[in-house]
Automatic annotation (TrEMBL):
Keywords: Signal. InterPro entries: PI-PLC_domain (IPR051057), PLC-like_Pdiesterase_TIM-brl (IPR017946). The lineage of its organism: Eukaryota, Fungi, Dikarya, Ascomycota, Pezizomycotina. It holds the Pfam family PI-PLC_X. One of its GO terms (molecular function) is phosphoric diester hydrolase activity. The keyword Signal applies. It comes from Saxophila tyrrhenica. SUPFAM superfamilies: PLC-like phosphodiesterases. GO terms for biological process: lipid metabolic process. This is PLC-like phosphodiesterase. Gene3D superfamilies: Phosphatidylinositol (PI) phosphodiesterase.
């Protein structure tokens, strides 16, 4: 304890007390109470399609799933990032792209992994999970080459024992102390030669259905992997970790029905990620907790900052005073950049000037 007794502590000016309380030393994933929990017993907030942004950098692409980049996501408390690995046309390069690199190309896999590494290096008490959908059908060694190049291989956790069973997970503190605090899942990775730290997702994690277009569609039942469909309680008893997809796609069809790219239903996000209204996260998470007999390990959201979704995750973790997080706006819109704010300000100035001029 920094202060020898409570009385001394209370005598300190309020500003110093606040600084001491927000010092995250001794916390794991933003709370001291999570350090002793096994990895699989913590609930993590996930940013679905983490690198695919709906902001100025993508011209506010409707294929974007997040308003803030992966660095901001992590600083705000997100601890699961998902992405899709694809090849740009006529290329073997590995990029992170949404569905196709023609639609939304967020750059190379290596650069994105390096962004994660930079954040993890400056946040040494944090355990982070990556889930890479391997749309490029890259081999394990092609993927690990990018991990090596980005400096993430040495931070990655390798499971002990047979890779085809779930296991007794280490606590967050153990992962942190051993320096292997990045957990990596890749669905359907069969060629994992030389890639022991890229875990085949389906040996460890099950998911509910992710294709929901109506807020009454959500289900907690296993949708993937196929061998656990209809056997949710068995998946739980065999130690598979529940990943709860909780995001809404816009209704497809109509004019664009020949070319349906699923886009997030952004207008409904305040309810989807919130705590009231049809299909809200708070109620849905409790329903899954009830069904599973345990809280979901992962809650995957679009536009993670809205809701805010992290409030539900904190409640499930019993965390009431998170430390070391950077606040992010909960507004259901992209942050305004300097340029956009400047142009609004100029507009704000010019309108009165124009009006004044008109009066002359
Ligand atoms: C947090 O507190 C510890 C002592 O309790 C101190 O050593 C460390 O420098 C502090 N960190 C920050 C970022 O203030
Ligand atoms: C992420 O977004 C923040 C805020 O907009 C920005 O300052 C930062 O440079 C971005 N980081 C990366 C790696 O793009
Ligand atoms: C988004 O979801 C709401 C609630 O179901 C619905 O009213 C609205 O039409 C949806 N928007 C789109 C673009 O699908």
């Amino acid at each position: 304890m920094l202060f020898s007794n409570l009385a001394t502590f209370l005598l300190l000016p309020a500003a110093i007390r606040a600084a001491a309380v927000s010092n995250s030393t001794g916390a794991c994933n933003n709370s001291p109470s999570l350090c002793s929990k096994p990895y699989d017993q913590v609930t993590y907030l996930g940013a679905h399609d983490s690198p695919f942004l709906r902001d100025e950098s993508t011209d506010f692409s409707t294929s974007g799933n997040q308003y803030y980049n992966s660095t901001v996501q992590l600083s705000a408390g997100v601890r699961l990032l998902t992405a899709q690995v694809q090849n740009p046309e006529d290329s073997n390069a590995l990029h992170v792209c949404h569905t196709s690199c023609d639609l939304l190309d967020a750059g190379t896999l290596r650069d994105w992994l390096a962004e994660v590494r930079t954040w993890m290096e400056s946040n040494p008490n944090e355990v982070v999970t990556l889930l890479l959908v391997n749309g490029a059908e890259a081999t394990g060694s092609a993927l690990t080459a990018q991990y090596e190049a980005a400096g993430l291989a040495s931070l990655s956790y390798t499971p002990s024992g047979s890779s085809s069973t779930s296991q007794d997970w280490p606590t967050l503190q153990t992962l942190i102390d051993s320096g292997t605090r990045l957990i990596n899942f890749v669905p359907d990775l069969n060629d994992d030669s030389g890639a022991a730290y890229l875990m085949n997702q389906w040996n460890y994690v099950f998911e509910n259905d992710y294709e929901n277009t109506s807020p009454t569609d959500y289900s907690c039942e296993v949708n993937r992997p196929a061998n656990f469909v209809g056997r949710t309680s068995e998946a739980i008893s065999k130690g598979r970790m529940p990943l709860m997809n909780h995001f809404l796609y816009a209704q497809s069809g109509g004019e664009n029905s020949l070319f349906t790219i699923q886009e997030p239903n952004a207008t409904y996000t305040p309810t989807t990620n919130g705590d009231s209204g049809t299909g809200n996260l708070e109620t849905a998470a409790d329903a899954c907790k009830q069904e599973y007999g345990r809280a979901p390990s992962f809650i995957l959201t679009d536009f993670f900052n809205v809701g805010p979704a992290i409030a539900t995750v904190d409640r499930l973790n019993g965390v009431s005073n998170p430390v070391g997080r950077r606040r992010v706006s909960t507004a259901n819109e992209a942050p305004s950049s300097g340029a956009a704010a400047m142009s609004r300000m100029m507009w704000g100035l010019s309108v009165p000037l124009l009006c004044a001029y008109a009066l002359l």
